[in-house]
Design brief:
The structure is a single chain. By secondary structure, this protein is mostly helical. It has a domain of 38 residues. The chain is built from three helices and no strands. The relative contact order is 0.08. The mean pLDDT is 87.
């Protein structure tokens, strides 16, 4: 597929790109090569191929969450460097 200069200018405007005439010619050539390659991919028969959702064939080993060693609020606070009766105390971030 051949890309003309008007298409390149429109794409450049949409992508907020700036380049000179020599750059436009190079980009037009590169884009034409990319589109030719995509057209070749369209020739491949993929009717019997399942679409991929991931590149990995691994399956997640899911387990059920279980509550263990339930601690009280006081147990959590006793390990804090600074705390009130029910809250953690932290240094001010904003003044």
């Amino acid at each position: 597929m051949k890309i003309d200069k008007d298409s390149i200018k429109k794409i450049a405007h949409l992508a907020r790109l700036e380049f000179d005439e020599k750059g436009a010619e190079k980009i037009a050539k590169d884009m034409s090569q990319i589109l030719d390659w995509v057209e070749k991919l369209d020739e491949i028969d993929t009717s019997g191929t399942e679409p991929l959702t991931t590149m990995s064939s691994e399956i997640n080993d899911m387990r059920e969450d279980k509550v263990a060693n339930q601690l009280s609020q006081a147990d959590g606070l006793k390990n804090a460097p600074a705390h009130d009766e029910v809250y953690f105390r932290v240094p001010k971030v904003l003044e």
